[in-house]
Known about the structure:
Elements: H1 10-30, H2 35-44, H3 49-70, H4 77-104, H5 108-132, H6 144-161, H7 166-173, H8 179-203, H9 209-215, H10 221-235, H11 238-261
Amino acid sequence: MFTVPPDAEPALYIICLCAGMLIVGLGKVGFGAGIGIVVMPILMFAVDGEPALGILLPALILGDFIGIGVHRRHFDWSLLRWLLPGAVAGVVVGYIALHLLQQQGDDVFTDVLSITVGSICLLLITLQCYRFAGGSLPDIPKHAATSFVIGAVECFVSALTNSAGALIMVYMLQQKLSKQKFVGTMLLFFMAVNLLKLPAFIQSEVITGQTLSHLGPFLLLVPVGAVIGAWLNKRVADRVFTLILYAIAAVSALRMIVNVLSPVE
């Protein structure tokens, strides 16, 4: 049964939910990453931050499963076999750190972490823009230790701040994978991350039966968006595809910084 959150204006909520679910499907299957940074602000037009998180995560997980079905033959296991263990380590350490910080009531560490990682990502993206303009730069090396560390840092930051995404995107883009393999590998990585988050979201009651009732039949729009995303993935030129993803990564990195410097009251 579909219900509207009590503090939401019904018409605005329905419009935002429809747009958000379509973008989840389109972005997951078409580009593989960066969707939360686009959809979260749309949902927050209609509902507060925590309810929006509870609505978004189930939709992202559904988008992950659909996307993996579409790109099931396009995974780079040489990256994933170290990224995924790093992700598990990062989430575990992140939630332990979050628990300790919540007991102390101290947000300074998470704020500094967000600004630091966001700034590093912006620097890396700026260097890539220099490369696109014809400059020569070394890549982040594709190595087991590098993949493990990137996965761990990404998920450690995500566990503490519910943001990030930019770091893993920049790293993956530098591996020069095909569009399909990039999307498939990113989907499998983020599906693992989202499933690792799910128990904590349920335990903290960010996701409840009521949260799922707020999604209702609009969750069916995720596969509709996925069809559009699959169509786009086949037709967007490689260079344009890469530039779009760097733009999403830049917005994600900027949001990490802006959320600290200008927090939403």
